[in-house]
Specification:
By secondary structure, the protein is of the alpha+beta class. The protein is 56% helix and 13% strand. It has a six-stranded mixed beta sheet, covered by helices on one side. It has a two-stranded antiparallel ribbon with strand order 1-2. It has a two-stranded antiparallel ribbon with strand order 3-5.
Length: 388
């Protein structure tokens, strides 16, 4: 089994190193030479043992076919070796027929064995061509995806500066306007510029999600992390903010990226609920090494069944009658969850609210159950209802 040293390098055990040394094809020239010697021995046996010619004859052809399966030579060398094998085995068989130790019908086995080899070689070359085509397509797809990701990153970077500048000038104009109509118009401009800024920022996060440096993992205590998020969000909307089950669990996660994902889920919940509706956060940990689940539930309008299958697609939005979102919030959540090795799911029924489930890999440290202390949870200004 492979092990990892302190520097992070992978070290193989003795059986693993031996398997690599013995893996085929190893030293192709040595393998070809060994087969040539083996074939010469069988040719001698073909000539030297009357009445037993059939055994070395078939051994030569079978070993030739097996060798080709390992090596798959180019067409020129293959035809050359095939011609030598046909001539040698035909000559040996003809000699045996001439001596009367074999019937003349045995000569027909030479073209039959050659045909068998040609069929095997054809299938082997077809497989080789298919693997080559598959590799070319995979490399092309990888190149296209890399170009698309790089384009999204570059476009997002380039958009952020002019949007920020335009937003600053629009805010300055808004301070000097006295007309009600002009004030309304500039607020529309400010709203759209802010929306463009959020789109650029989220596109940048989504495009970077598959990169090797996207996450900076650290131990995150999800119970306290969840309460910090609720403290921050409670003043933003007149909702009944609640804590559900709040198990103590520490997981390896990127605090900033995970916070962006939870913020996107809460933004979505606020947008689809009204004054007095419930928004509840929960953390459920089953046991050590098991996935930890964060739930964001609301009592809002819910999601139509026909939209559930596309809810995490980019630029998909069901904002009927609501301020427009970016259409990228839930796509960002999915990208962050998968980057952590987890996933995100949703359950919803129209008129009965929605529940998003963010699944994260299990904790590395000790897992303390049951739920966090009520005094700590209720310390959020005494205004957060706590429900089991």
């Amino acid at each position: 089994m492979p092990t990892t040293d302190r520097g992070g390098a992978i070290r193989l055990s003795w059986p693993g190193r031996s398997a690599i040394r013995l893996s085929w094809p190893f030293r192709p020239g040595l393998l070809d030479a060994a087969w040539a010697v083996f074939t010469a021995i069988n040719l001698v046996a073909l000539l030297a043992f009357p009445g037993w010619e059939t055994i070395p004859f078939h051994v030569i052809w079978i070993s030739f076919t097996l060798l080709y399966g390992l090596r798959i030579w180019a067409i020129g060398p293959t035809l050359g070796v095939l011609g030598v094998v046909i001539a040698a085995t035909a000559a040996g068989t003809a000699l045996a027929v001439g001596r009367g130790s074999e019937p003349a019908v045995e000569l027909t086995e030479v073209p039959l064995m050659a045909a068998m080899f040609c069929a095997t070689a054809w299938h082997a070359r077809r497989k080789l061509a298919a693997e080559h085509n598959s590799r070319v397509v995979s490399e092309e797809n990888a190149r296209v995806l890399a170009n698309q990701r790089r384009f999204l990153q570059d476009a997002s970077h380039q958009l952020r500066t002019p949007i920020t500048i335009a937003l600053g000038h629009a805010e300055l104009l808004a301070r000097g306007l006295v007309s009600q109509q002009e004030g309304h118009d500039i607020q529309v401009v400010l709203g759209e510029l802010n929306r463009l800024r959020r789109i650029a920022e989220r596109l940048l996060v989504i495009a970077a999600a598959e990169g090797p440096e996207f996450l900076h993992l650290e131990p995150i205590a999800l119970d306290s992390f969840t309460m910090e998020i609720l403290r921050r969000w409670r003043p933003t909307a007149n909702r009944r903010w609640q804590l559900g089950t709040l198990d103590k669990a520490t997981v390896p996660a990127d605090r900033e990226r995970l916070g962006l994902a939870i913020d996107a889920l809460l933004e979505n919940a606020v947008r689809h609920t009204g004054d007095g509706d419930v928004i509840r956060l929960s953390v459920v940990a089953v046991g050590y090494g098991m996935p930890v689940r964060m739930f964001i539930a609301d009592s809002g309008e819910g999601i139509p069944p026909e939209s559930l299958g596309h809810i995490f697609d980019r630029f998909r939005s069901g904002d009927s009658g609501h301020p427009r979102g970016t259409g990228l919030g839930l796509a960002l959540v999915q990208a962050v969850a998968r980057a952590h090795g987890g996933n995100v799911m949703v359950r919803s029924r129209p008129g009965q609210g929605s529940e998003f489930e963010l699944v994260l890999p299990g904790p590395r440290g000790p897992l303390a159950l049951p739920s966090a202390a009520p005094a700590e949870a209720d310390a959020i200004d005494g205004k957060l209802a706590r429900k089991p």
